[in-house]
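Troubleshooting: if your tokenizer reports a length mismatch, compare against these two reference records.
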Amino acid sequence: MVADVFIGKYDAGDENKLDLLLINPSLNWELDQKNKMNVRIEKDIPNQETPHIGIAYLLAIAKKEGLKVKYIDMVIDCFSIEQLIDFVSKTKPAVVGFTAFTIQVRTAAFIAEKIKHTLPEVKICVGGPHVTAIPKETLDEFPWFDFVISGEGEEVLPKIFDSLGNDQALSRINGVITRMTEKVIVGASNNPILNLDSLPFPAWQEFNLSKYPGTYPHRTNLELPMVTGRGCPYRCVFCCRALGSTVRHRSVLSVIAEIERNISEFNCKSVAFLDETFLINMAWVDEFLNVFVDRGLHKKITWSCSTRVSDMSLELLKRMRNAGCYFIFFGLESADDQTLKLIKKNITTKQIEDVVRWTKLAGIIPVGAFIIGLPGDTEKHVMKAIAMAEKLDLYSVTFPIAVPFPGTELRQMALRGEYGMKIVSDNWSHYGKQDPGVMESKELSWSKRKELQQMAYLRNPKKKIADYLQRLSQNITNI
């Protein structure tokens, strides 16, 4: 279950009372656990089952500030709404904070209402990419939230507790939006943390890590997520850039120190770098690979990352493999060069084919995703993507359906009716990438998108990693 709370500095006279309760919401933890298992590529190998790194940073800040805090992941900790309300009644937190993607925000609001009925005086807030994109609209739609945190929350958290009881002061905190806030700056770029080395390492000691086996198929005892930087300078139309467009890197030595901490304190055997684009600064990557190998970490741990197919080479991929990289996710998006240009991905189909081939030659497992229903997409475009996926022979390929998330250019294009697109639902609970039914176009109805998605998965079935690695070893170059 969740970790024991630590000593608080606000209302220390009540042993049970919390300063802060952080929640990953769920209406039905059993169903959500089942859905987690369903996305596994192989039943006995973890996939997308990672502790929340944003929460881990907030827990580290709370601990540093002396706050009495607890985190409940309702799915992993098997918490029903009734159990959560009972816990809230007993601990009477001063602040309850939800983390929520778009698909979770209605769930968070539903639970917030239940908490308010039980504990009317509690302050309830929500953070994440959805509220970062539309903070005022979120407050208008869901009256049970007292405020939202737009952007990065670590430096904001202590200021919130310094302002409790003073709504005017709370409304003036940069990154906090209340109903009293006069000037709202939308987006994550309004309060970026410029010195990421100043943040404490994520507080994994507050998690039962045995319940979070990992993000990617590392096949070790424990994989932990990490970030080496925040922000993305690219302008893909389907992305909301939840961490803003200002790119900030941690120092290589800070990243290395966290890896060594993860090994010594948690017996971590693999690291999943969750940066939006890991290879965004080649000078940084060069230094990282050199230091990583010089410290002998390539003999202790493996790692994975997500990146683009631009600015890649076989030589670089060989260096990454020698430094312990075993797995790379590529956002491929489309098999049509005009579409790739239209969505501002700024890659080509030749780059896709070359880099996936080089990745396999280097002995690294490649995975990727093609999006169904991008601007201008026709059935022919989707069929090209399905055929390219077959040709690329990735370990795993997914075919999410395009979702017009708040804060994306894609949403604005659909609202304007460009390329025949239209939004058919603003029920945020349907804003998932596998079965949304929230947007369609003249060329691709929602039912046609689902039909093509089913065909794509039928023609690109799941593979066994042992078999895939054996095939890779037969084609690997000498490295």
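Reference record two:
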Amino acid sequence: MEWEPNERDAWVSDAQRWITQIKGVLQCKIDLDDQGEIAGIHVVAGLERDPRHIVRDVESLLKARLQLDVYYKKIGVVQVVESPRPDPHVAHGVDREPSVVAAGVTFLPPHAEAPRPVAPPKPAMAPEASEPPAAPVPAVLVAEDAFPRPTCRGVSLLSSDRSVRAEVVLAAGGREAAGVAESAGHADADLNCIARATVEAVGLLLALPVVLHLREIRLDTIGGQATVLAAVDLVESRRTETLLGACALRHNRQQAVVHAVLAALNRRLGLFAVREAEAAD
């Protein structure tokens, strides 16, 4: 069935209105591609909420009301600093409903007319003292990796003729988590166990709305340097993304494995919050 663009995209205005009802959101604009799919969601918000919470609220709202799964990277949030401004109906002597001023953006009611431009006063012979012009309102752009990246606090490896057991302790945001992995003893079993323990520790440390799975860990030589290569699958809903990381094997083999896994994950882990202590205990 072919849809007319206006009929096909009629839900956009409702979705934009719903999103602006989310706490902290001031404005919203949804862009669609030629196929009518969401190409980007642009949100203007204040500073009272974490932008990542706003992104998750937008995702949940669209899923609940429209059954739309939107990739979080398509949702952009810009936070603007609130700045008090003079009341326009007082400044111009016009009896009009006051506008709503929030975060440096002025919203007029739909039935209100925009203020007419006022002619500049004629220059006087002697300059009169006047208030300095208001400073521009700064905008705060959402930056990735606002949360501390996990760091390695310790690695322990216990091996026997039949099995290998690894424990990795990671820390982030003042919290620690330990991941444990075991396997039968075989060549490079220590690499696999340490890498799986690292992935488990990351899951325990961070509140992840995704599933992490170690796809591959191996040693290779790049540029004449022995290097640990790691591939970790990040599974989100029905989408799987493979993240890659590497660490040169200069000193400690065990820590190099941990750092290779974290190198694959750290850039994406900055988008998630540290798990609260009550939830982890």
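Descriptive notes for reference record two:
- The two ends are 53 Å apart (CA to CA).
- The CA atoms of residues 85 and 134 lie 9 Å apart.
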